[in-house]
């Protein structure tokens, strides 16, 4: 493994070679935190691999280049593996055709879509043996549209039930909320949820595809907006008080957003 560097457009960028691939990364310098010793501040180097496959190193402004290089080499395999995983996600994000063999998601698990024809059955969707089984009375030119509609309705019905269960479970932890807030399940292209000025929640049905911990994060995030209407420091402190690991959960959800929102 070797390292090369480049500084362009006032951005501090470097790269290292792992196996047969050059991995580029940007270094963002931050002022040392007051109250921390110089030695402790020097050691605090954070490495982030984003779902977009960008690698960013956050380091105190006086950190030596060699210290950053050592940190990258120490975590080179982890960085490479994370990039490989995120690239795999991006490669498989293609418009859904709603045909047998496609992948669907529910509560963080993968299910294979299977579409069957049964002249004696009513159109339906059900989960069975690792599959999401869609039954149509007959196949015709409107098959794709019918499967899409049935699957969307199935997700929305599941979302309404599970979101209500999670909301009931989480509200007691949000002591600033009186009673269970009303909520609607409504598709959104770029948001998982929102909170109105009157404290009513709106949740994206695609969220039902995510693990329960991610669902809880979105619900708690919106419940915090009932007390704090913007993303102030007070808002983030409140969210941390009810979900200390929210950053990790958010990162996990962000990494899978393209898969879950794809339809």
TrEMBL record:
Signal peptide segment: none
Matches recorded under PANTHER family: UNCHARACTERIZED PROTEIN YGJP (PTHR30399), UTP PYROPHOSPHATASE (PTHR30399:SF1)
Stretches assigned to the YgjP-like metallopeptidase domain: 43-254
Protein's name according to its UniProt entry: DUF45 domain-containing protein
Xref: CDD domains: M48_yhfN_like
């Amino acid at each position: 493994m070797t390292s090369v560097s480049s500084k362009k457009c006032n951005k501090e960028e470097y790269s290292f070679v792992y196996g047969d691939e050059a991995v580029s990364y940007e270094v963002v310098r931050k002022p040392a935190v007051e109250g921390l010793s110089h030695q402790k501040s020097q050691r605090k180097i954070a490495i982030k691999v984003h779902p977009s496959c960008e690698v960013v190193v956050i380091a105190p402004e006086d950190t030596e280049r060699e210290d950053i290089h050592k940190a990258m080499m120490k975590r080179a395999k982890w960085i490479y593996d994370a990039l490989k995983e995120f690239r795999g996600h991006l490669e498989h994000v293609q418009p859904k055709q709603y045909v047998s063999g496609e992948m669907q998601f529910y509560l963080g698990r993968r299910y294979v879509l299977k579409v069957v024809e049964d002249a004696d059955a009513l159109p339906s969707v059900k989960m069975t043996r690792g599959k999401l089984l869609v039954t149509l009375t007959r196949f015709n030119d409107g098959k794709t549209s019918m499967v899409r509609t049935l699957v969307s309705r199935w997700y929305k019905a599941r979302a309404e039930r599970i979101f209500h269960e999670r909301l009931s479970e989480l509200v007691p932890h949000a002591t600033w909320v009186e009673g269970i807030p009303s909520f609607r399940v409504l598709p959104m292209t770029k948001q998982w949820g929102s909170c109105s000025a009157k404290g009513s929640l709106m949740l994206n049905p695609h969220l039902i595809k995510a693990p329960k911990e991610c669902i809880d994060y979105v619900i708690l995030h919106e419940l915090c907006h009932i007390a704090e209407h913007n993303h102030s420091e007070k808002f983030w402190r409140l969210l941390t008080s009810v979900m200390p690991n929210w950053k990790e959960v958010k990162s996990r959800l962000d990494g899978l957003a393209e898969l879950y929102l794809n339809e």
